[in-house]
Amino acid sequence: MSNVIQLQSFKSVAATGSVRAAAQHLGMSPSAVSYHLKLLEESAGLTLFQRRGRGLCLTDTGTAIMGEVDGVLESSSRLQQRISDLKDNRINRLSIGYFSTAGNRWMPELVLFLEHKFPNTAVQLNLAEDQWHEDRSDIQVIITETKDPPFPPQINSSLLLEDPYVVAVPENHDLANCKELSLTEVEGYPWIDNDKGEGPCRMILFDACARAGVQVQFRHEAHSFVAALHMVSRGLGITLLPRLGIDQLPDGVVIVPLAAPEPIRYVHAISDPGHPQQDVIDEAISALRDLASDDAVAR
Questions:
Q1: Same domain for 68 and 211?
Q2: Number of domains within the chain
Q3: Where do the HTH lysR-type domain residues begin and end (predicted)?
Q4: Phi then psi for 143, rounded to 5 degrees?
Q5: Distance of CA 37 to the CA centre of its chain
Q6: Are residues 203 and 155 both part of a single domain?
Q7: Model pLDDT, residue 158
Q8: What kind and span of H or E run contains 217?
Q9: Which of 37, 58, 172, 290 could form a disulfide with 62 if both were Cys (CB 3.0 to 4.6 A apart)?
Q10: Each residue's pLDDT tens digit, 167-206
């Protein structure tokens, strides 16, 4: 049976492609990491890594087990957190999964509220930008492409916010004084990308553009809302983003609403209705609704 240290070594080498880099990350010697990999492969009876140049990469077999390794390490981390909570006499624990813009806008106030309302409950925040999965956190704040997505019947869901996309333009831009803009009206200008991968935020924008017959072409790539907005402030182009993604607007940037039918992302809070701490979950989701409502009114 593989132990946690072996699995940590496996994951770190897979991520870095180097025993030496993994050792530095884990605070071990390279020989210790190599020994852990050897024990893991011997225990499993499988070859998990192969040479690539001067480094290592996963074999197909190693890639196949990575998801299960992640699950074991996450469970181990939760167990260690639980032990720590018990030592601190914080008997209860509530985990909340969130995406980054929800974290910036809502999580500090939510944790403060829960800390005062339920002082014996430890709140664990889990950043989760990818698609929703069951058994990830007690409460998950997620993005969906539709207002009423088909959640499993055993899941409680609460719509927190309809978050429309807007256009950020330089304040001296010829679009800056428009009351609203359609996707076709902004197509001919240089766009700045503000996302990465194929997450729901990107797909919502791309799908809306496809329906409008707009071809998406990026002049620059920033991969974050903050970086993209600062590039707009330098006059490098325009960027389209959800309104909630604007935490602090840089000087020299103007926000123009998109005309209907504009792309909209929907923010939901989901949870397990049979959770033993249902009272805490109910209060947390109620607080999230209030925070989301404040954001909606502020627009």
A1: no
A2: 3
A3: 1-59
A4: -105, 135
A5: 30
A6: no
A7: 94
A8: none
A9: 58
A10: 999 999 999 999 999 999 999 999 999 987 777 888 899 9
- Could you tell me the pLDDT band of residue 278, with boundaries at 50, 70 and 90? confident
275 lies in the same domain as 291: yes
Q: Look at residue 1 in the predicted model and tell me its pLDDT.
A: 43
Q: Which domain holds residue 184?
A: 164-264
Using DSSP, state whether 31 is helix, strand or coil. helix
Q: How many CB atoms lie within 10 A of CB 161?
A: 26
139-144 and 264-271 beta bridge pairing: antiparallel
Q: Within 13 Å of residue 26, how many CA atoms lie on the same side as its CB?
A: 27
User: What is the reported pTM?
Assistant: 0.67
Count of Cβ atoms closer than 10 Å to residue 156 Cβ: 17
* The two structure tokens encoding residue 206: 């791309």
d(CA 159, CA 273): 16
Tokens read off for 145: 């492409």
Clarify whether residues 49 and 194 are in a common domain. Answer: no
Token duo for residue 277: 């701490």
Domain boundary among the residues 83, 103, 128 is at 83
Q: Is the dihedral of CA 164, 165, 170, 174 positive or negative?
A: negative
pLDDT single digits (tens) 58-111: 999 999 999 899 888 888 887 777 677 566 554 578 889 998 888 888 999 999
**C-alpha to C-alpha distance for 188 and 182, rounded to whole angstroms:** 12
